[in-house]
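Researcher: Next entry in the queue.
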Amino acid sequence: MNEVFDGFMDLRQGMNASRSPSLLAATQYAKGINVSVRGGLATTRPSLVLEDAELPQGLFQGAGVWSLESGDRIVAVIEGNVVTVDVDDLTVTDLGAAMAVDTQCYMTQVDRYFVIQDGSTTPVVLEEVAGVPTIRAAAHSIPAGYVMVFAHGRIHMVPQIVPSTTVDGRPYLLSGDILEPLDPTTVLNFTETEYLAEGGAHGMPLELGNIGGLGVYRNANTGTGVGQIMAFARNGVCSFDFSVPRSMWKSQVVSQVLFTGAGCKSPWSIVNANDDMIYRSLDGIRVLRYAISQSSGGQGALSNVPMSIEVDPYMAVDKDHLPFISGWLADNRCLMTAVGSIAGMFKAIVSWDLAAGYYQGAAGPGAYDGIWTGDDFLQGVTALRQDIKTGYVFADGPVLYRQDSEAVYDGSDTKIEARLETKAYGVGDVVTRKKLEYVEMWCSDIPMDTEIKVWYRPGGYPLWKLLGSKQIKVPSGGLYQDRRKVRISLDEYSDNCDSTSGEPLYTGTEFQFAIQWTGRMTIDRFRMAVVVAADSPPDPCDEDAGVALVPSSATGEVLNDYSYRIRGS
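Model: Structure for this entry, 569 residues:
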């Protein structure tokens, strides 16, 4: 019988778990773990390099970036201790116990200062003195509170309580004093809170619940180039226009409801990307954007678009972990923690490649690489390292990883385990039975010894059956290598039976594959070879009616998405 082939080369559209593997486009795949498809070919993701920063161990409570002309520092609160890490030389400065030890902390840069809140105690203000980060000793009047943002020359924050009352401040917004260039310390005061002479906080224009995050929309047509402040509550998004003078806040409507029903609980998840605001809503990743006509001054509408249905299986499990999810930008990707295990700790990072929207020369929504795994992740941030925007992510310990597209190992010397689950290939006719013969791969950019394993399953079958494995040997000290037509053939005499139907697992109308490699490489192309079988092929299996299908050497196995660990098990 003649062999017929199907497979892939171009996977530019990335992962899509929203459709059956049988219905995916030729340029999509069902699942990606530790892969990247930037440029269209499937390759190992960028490395997570373990930074040599000696952090104190304990409960991680939050982090932010303090960016000054002298360089960027990552500020973190660990077990109540305030710690800074200089991203250029990894100098760690422990400023001592200054915060409550059992709460999530919130932080933002305010002009040259850096403010940290824990929701109950007096906020801590950092300043640089003679090049050294220091806790500012001088008095300030910033009230205790939660999330903050600095815009239009003022601190805007969610207070613990509304000033001069005992009312819970979490549904309200409080604004501080204006920054005066000749005396920048004025920005640390809240002496103007009685701006209406009747109350000291902005209420949400509609009952939307507590405010979970604040951001600044940067694409509005204002004279300063800084637009409205976006307040993300549990049940919606509101905007506040503080570009007008404070003396006019009483006489003008400065707030409006933008959307209801798609709010946000995590201040760490709000990311400004180009002209858009990306955030983790209650139902996945959403994007807040104006239409092109609006951003250019014409008539247009603000949209709030859900953007993560392709990776929804990893979004849907985080309902109890929403306040701790973080998002950050690195190498034109939006990365977001997902799959929470315990409070504040996540098994995966969802990778959304924003650059993928330009592969065809026109703007598009980008493509999801899938998830990146390897540790129990806490929070990611973006900082300027040697004037290049670089992604950093804290993991359990805590330890600090740096994203590096030039490195080949994770940690210091760990080979990355990547896996790609393909669409289901029916070789044109999806009703005629076929018999799987072998698969072949063309691989390139291989810098080290790399092991390849391939699993398969017929269409609709829930378990994976190992087809075979190959070892690629690459001695150190040379150029990256490639391999052509790496073949893994089926052993039809091995135990390949579906005991529930009495059919061999290597026969079916379509086949799906899981390709796993440990090391580093790019898959230039992949194809499977099948032969068309008779309607009633020889059947070496006996049907055992009523048997439960469970993983075994005969029936196949369940693949663990989180088996790979950078620092071991």
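Model: Residues 195-199, 291-300 have pLDDT under 50 and may be disordered.
Researcher: Noted, moving on.
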